[in-house]
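Lab manual, section 2.4: Encoding a predicted structure.

Procedure: take the sequence of the chain (140 residues), apply the prediction step described in section 2.3, and record the output as structure tokens. A sample record is shown.
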Amino acid sequence: MTKISTSSTQTITSNTVSSSSELNLYSQMGTSIGTALIGVIFMILLLGWIVKRLGHNKKRNAFIDVKATHCISPKERIMLVEVDKQLLVVGITSHHMTLLHTIDEQRAEKLLSQSTPVAKSADNNVFKQILQSALKTKKE
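Recorded output:
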């Protein structure tokens, strides 16, 4: 009883085709915008990582100078810190810092004049030498 005319069928199919092409266009735009957004976020993270790796340590006249560091575990380390011409041996964990030993001014000058750090890889060796010589004089 219902008679469908060919013109109305063509209108329905043309509306369906145009809406699907619009939908396809929007999905392509969304995909390209999403890809661009992910690319920008990736570049920001990459640049942040590069800046962190290169370091932005500028030498300034600081009152506290870290002379050497020795890592015991990923969250524990021992640091040799110079404060007011004294060397402090500090134990550092993830929760707190503890002063392990204080080396007086005359002894600190003698120890620091003996060892001149050449590279960062030599820091552990310098720390080891300073700590051993400090412990030898403490025993004597």
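Check your result against the sample. Residues 117-121 have pLDDT under 50 and may be disordered.
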